[in-house]
Write a structure and sequence with these properties.
By secondary structure, this protein is an all-alpha fold. It has one domain. Helices cover 64% and strands 0% of the residues. It is built from 14 helices and no strands. The protein has helices spanning 2-27, 34-64, 74-87, 91-112, 120-123, 131-155, 157-167, 182-198, 206-221, 229-232, 239-246, 264-268, 289-293, 296-311.
């Protein structure tokens, strides 16, 4: 099924490139850049699909039972800009492709020496015959990696100086998921891409994994009064579970509920908070004012200043 969907997607992007992009590049004398243009168009189309799916799922929920209503939601538009810049650029996908190609070259050099590096399917050969089970296992491992990356963002002062941009939003919506400093996004893309290559995620399955995790993250940030019940809350991260993570009393190293898709990691490592019917105010009271009210460019500039101050041991609020 995954291969069928991938085939349809490839056919559609191929048609769009040949019909719209290639003729324009030919007319402008830019055909030397055709391969690069095709890859970027692929990223762009996949990003549009992600944004469309997220809006279709999350927007009706926010209209149904919002946690908060704001007379002025202008700061939310900054988060919309973050989402469009991030998902239409698709840094995680670029990171995967970059590290996949690097990994392929390294594997080629190693194979010439007679040694074949192991992957997940090397240890569990039956996964080759069960693609959905393999997909679930890849998601499980990558989600575990994301849990620890998220904890490290709160643990190290210089990383928190960047990640605080994400937590500074006092009007949290599903758009807030992509509210990150570009340097933080680059680190995240490298982290995610390296793990994916190390465990041998097939390139055809990577977009599906990315879509599942991205949808889960967007839903968890939604401005909706929604939990999954006493049992469900312990199986999948809900908007209520993650909102506790964004509460004003849960910033920096005091954080709880770091899980992206599965709360099981928070259970295992003692960072879970399952309080019911609790939807705190969001924000980071110690964040610079630009992190709250500034536009994208201003927040990026102040983020670089703050990480430099943190590295020098004198970050200011």
């Amino acid at each position: 099924m995954i291969e069928t969907i991938r085939g349809l997607y490839d056919d559609a992007t191929g048609w769009l490139f040949e019909t719209l992009v290639q003729p324009a590049m030919y007319a402008l004398g830019l055909m030397d850049w055709a391969d690069e243009a095709f890859h970027w168009m692929d990223f762009f189309v996949f990003g549009l699909i992600q944004v469309a799916v997220v809006i279709a799922v999350c927007r009706p929920l926010e209209m149904w039972r919002p946690v908060e209503r704001w007379p002025d939601g202008r700061v939310v538009w900054t988060d919309v800009a973050y989402t469009l810049l991030t998902r239409l650029g698709l840094l995680p996908m670029i990171g995967f492709i970059l590290f996949f190609h690097i990994g392929t070259r390294i594997e080629g050099w190693i194979a010439d020496s007679g040694f074949v590096p192991p992957t997940l399917e090397t240890f569990l050969p039956w996964l080759r015959d069960w693609p959905l089970a393999a997909l679930a296992l890849y998601i499980l491992i990558l989600d575990f990696g994301e849990y620890w990356r998220h904890r490290f963002q709160h643990m190290f002062g210089w990383w928190w100086a960047l990640h605080s941009i994400h937590h500074a939003q006092t009007q949290m919506t599903f758009w807030t998921d992509d509210r990150n400093h570009i340097l933080d996004d680059v680190i995240a893309a490298a982290w995610f891409g390296i793990i994916a290559v190390l465990i041998g995620v097939p390139p055809g399955q990577f977009p599906v994994i990315l879509l599942v995790l991205r949808l889960a993250e967007s839903l968890s940030h939604a401005n909706v009064r929604l939990d999954f019940g006493r049992v469900g809350e312990r199986l999948v991260v809900s908007p209520r579970f993650h909102r506790l993570h964004h509460g004003v009393l849960s910033v920096g190293q005091q954080g709880k509920n770091y899980g992206v898709l599965l709360p099981v990691w928070d259970w295992m490592f003692g960072t879970a908070d399952f309080r019911r019917d609790h939807y705190p105010r969001t924000g980071d009271p110690a964040a610079p004012a630009a992190y709250v009210n500034g536009g994208w460019l201003r927040q990026q500039a102040v983020g670089l200043r703050e990480v430099w101050r943190a590295l020098r041991g004198r970050r200011e609020g």
